[in-house]
């Protein structure tokens, strides 16, 4: 155990601030993984680790474990424990017109690799997903080996759904096409010796994540059990260790003086305040966008703010895609700079000029989320988004000049066009996230700009 007796409160506060920023996305990701794969009595439980889990259904307001869920594509999930052996991910041949992706996310929440339409194509293939310590032989029939920096990872599958009549086709892909199995099962050989059982600690709840020092104990568990210190973080871990934070250490606030504990609590608050400042001054103005918050370790390092941006990504939409896969321009304010709120019969419009729809090679959508929960909004229309598929299926009404106007409000419109083009809002604060899957270059380089969201008279 490190000696914290020589720490000054000022130094402890700075370490706690940086360690909290570092820990937050890892702790929040673990919170969801715990609910999905490790807590069978939880309402959000999906199934055990190392199994493909998913059905041909879209997320609804009843899905509450993940903030800002995508309601465009049915999800499949694999919580991958790679400590004992790799997993083999089998992908069937998929219609060339259908978008799909397997996003691979490590314990740090880096998107370390993709399989899918953009990166590997829609042909049948087999991928070996291995942890950092695996040194075995690559069997025949494997298309490629994918390495995770951590031995706990998540494979997040998205499969495009064209319309309600397409559910059976997507269900067939999910149930009969995608396959996951341990390497020993794939090669029909004896599995390696079982790893020691892990005693998984209770996660830090979302409502306590902003303030609880217990986040450091959870960070120590994750670093010790699933992570090897990255060469770029050796000095950082040495610094954290002064406060008993890091792999192999025990964070026990009862051993600190009252003054040090107060410094730790203040450091956590400082970390949260730094995020709020980023949100207000840079995210709200789109000086910093989702493109900066999600990606590989290398991409996030290049931003110069890897840990703060990683934290912001977890808060605003954990497990978001890298920019090449999807973009998430979002509306938190109207054209006059006021925060969005549909209470009191307030209405808004979002108009895409002719030829100005979001440029995406796969599809685009506009999804409504409530605040502060950041979850889908229950409404009488059972409509949580508007997307390009609805336009393709003639479910939306274009303006006379060929543009498209969306109507955002709490009360249901009575006029037919407004009703068809309505994106229902909650009777409170909200935000709207645009999603562009496989964004075109004009979206990535900023040539295409999001249109203003205007407050209008009902």
Automatic annotation (TrEMBL):
Residues 50-182 form the DUF1254 domain. InterPro entries: DUF1214 (IPR010621), DUF1214_C_sf (IPR037049), DUF1254 (IPR010679), DUF1254_sf (IPR037050). Residues 325-441 form the DUF1214 domain. Signal peptide: none annotated. Gene3D superfamilies: Domain of unknown function DUF1214, C-terminal domain (2.60.120.600), Domain of unknown function DUF1254 (2.60.40.1610). Pfam families: DUF1214, DUF1254. It comes from the Bacteria. This is DUF1254 domain-containing protein. It comes from Acaryochloris marina (strain MBIC 11017).
């Amino acid at each position: 155990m490190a000696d914290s007796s020589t720490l000054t409160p000022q130094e402890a506060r700075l370490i706690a601030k940086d360690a909290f920023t570092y820990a937050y996305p890892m702790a929040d990701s673990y919170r969801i993984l715990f609910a999905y794969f490790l807590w069978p009595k939880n309402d959000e439980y999906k199934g055990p680790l190392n199994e493909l889990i998913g059905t041909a259904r879209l997320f609804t307001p009843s899905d509450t474990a993940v903030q800002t869920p995508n309601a465009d594509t049915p999800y499949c999930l694999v919580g991958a424990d790679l400590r004992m052996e790799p997993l083999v991910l089998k992908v069937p041949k998929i219609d060339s017109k259908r978008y799909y992706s397997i996003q691979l996310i490590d314990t740090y929440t880096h998107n370390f690799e993709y399989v899918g339409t953009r990166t590997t194509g829609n042909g049948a293939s087999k991928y070996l997903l291995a942890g950092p310590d695996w040194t075995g032989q690559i069997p025949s029939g494997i298309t490629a080996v994918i390495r995770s920096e951590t031995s706990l990872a998540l494979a997040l599958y998205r499969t495009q759904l064209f319309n309600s009549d397409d559910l059976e086709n997507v269900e067939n892909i999910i149930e009969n096409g995608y396959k996951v199995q341990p390497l020993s099962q794939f090669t029909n050989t004896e599995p390696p010796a079982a790893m020691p059982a892990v005693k998984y600690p209770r996660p830090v709840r979302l409502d306590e994540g902003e303030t609880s020092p217990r986040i450091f104990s959870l960070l120590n568990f994750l670093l010790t059990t699933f992570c090897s210190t990255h060469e770029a973080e050796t000095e950082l871990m040495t610094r954290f260790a002064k406060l008993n934070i890091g792999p192999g250490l025990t964070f026990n606030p009862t051993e600190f003086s009252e003054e040090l504990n107060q410094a730790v609590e203040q450091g956590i608050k400082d970390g949260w305040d730094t995020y709020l400042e980023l949100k207000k001054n840079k995210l709200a103005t789109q000086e910093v966008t989702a493109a900066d918050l999600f990606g590989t370790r290398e991409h996030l390092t290049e931003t110069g703010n890897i840990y703060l941006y990683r934290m912001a990504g977890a808060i605003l939409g954990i497990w978001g895609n890298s920019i090449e896969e999807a973009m998430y321009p979002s509306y938190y304010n109207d054209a006059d700079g006021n925060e969005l709120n549909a209470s009191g019969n307030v209405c808004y419009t979002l108009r895409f000029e002719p030829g100005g729809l979001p440029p995406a090679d796969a599809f685009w959508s506009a999804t409504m989320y409530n605040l502060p929960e950041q979850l889908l909004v229950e409404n009488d229309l059972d409509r949580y988004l508007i997307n390009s598929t609805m336009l393709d299926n003639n479910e939306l009404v274009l303006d006379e000049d060929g543009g498209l106007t969306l109507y955002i409000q709490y009360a249901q419109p009575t006029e037919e066009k407004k009703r068809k083009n309505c994106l229902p809002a909650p009777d409170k604060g909200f935000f709207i996230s645009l999603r562009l899957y496989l964004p075109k270059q004009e979206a990535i380089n900023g040539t295409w700009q999001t249109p203003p969201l205007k407050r209008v008279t009902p």
